[in-house]
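Q: How do we represent a protein-ligand complex in a form that can be generated token by token?
A: Start from the inputs.
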Amino acid sequence: MIKKIDSYILLIATVVVFGILFNTTPAAAEEGFVTLPEIVNSTVTPRIVYIENPRFPKVSAEELQKIVHYSAALVKEHFGIDILASADIPVLDIDKVFTELVENKPEKLDDFIGDFRNEKVNWEVVRKNLIKQIEKQKDPLASQIEFAQPYLSMPMEKEDIISFSHAVIETFKAGLSHWTVSKLEDGHPVIGAVTGRPDLPFNEYVYWSLMAKRGIKAEIILTNQLIASVEYIPVPLHTSIRGGITGGSTEYNPSSKYGSSVWVSLFPYFSNDPFIRKYRNGNSYTREKSLYYAGVMLAHEIGHQLLQLGHPWSNKACVMRPAGMLDFVSWVKNLDASKCPIDSSAAMKRGALNIPVW
Ligand SMILES: [Zn+2]
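Then emit the structure tokens for the protein with zinc ion bound:
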């Protein structure tokens, strides 16, 4: 069954929505994909920034370098590309970044966000979108149920798509509301307003998309922020049962040397929250392992960015095959570059992935 942690497919769905917001025509959206970047001498020099939320667990400059270092080794091994990264990773203040985004956002942007913080989500719309997603999959319903069942927060009345969709939506709801209750070390919920701090939509996926669209001057963006949200666009099953967590994405960025920028959220690797641990198959990670797994995730996104590779679901040796839920141990255990060369499957061909320009 299909499981993944990043969500470029969600983005492709989003682009249709944003096309409306920005008055671009559907025809333009269809034609408009990021050009396959030209990699000179098999070497790249990405600009990397770190967006820090001071409320979340701190990641040191040295640790950020380690993530990039681990990632670079995998990119070399799996894709034959050298990453020459600067020794300095500038730290950007998340308040400043998001204040600018909110001040210049498209008028209707927030209409696509489910306001779970105020319990104002129209879950019936989300459920109908989910049913469409389930029906579109190649896997039969039974195997989708089998995949999701261990994570469902309520039992299914019947083994049909209606009962299944209700159980998945309840699970999605419970997952999201967990973050409005579960607390960080400062005693305040992971997601929610904190006295004395600006109340900005840090956790909302569409704003991270907008950040790239607005041309943040970086090819790689790392953050310690958790991104978890619900949108009124088709959300994949695996994202739904994970409570709307997005681990990273590759998105059109007009300022990027490669036409797109990638972002990776480090929270799923460092947090020991019971919800996260459940999706990690119960595992806690040492700090070093967390850094390594985050590096693997970054390498995966860089494969989308530089070679525009897709997701080779059937080959567990590929770093481009997404992780199962948040179970990074079994993901990494199976990786083997020699068993997943470029061109070894349709998804492993350069340009297999279309990154929409919007
Ligand atoms: Zn991916």
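Residues 315 and 321 are 7 Å apart (CA to CA). The first strand starts at residue 43 and ends at 44.
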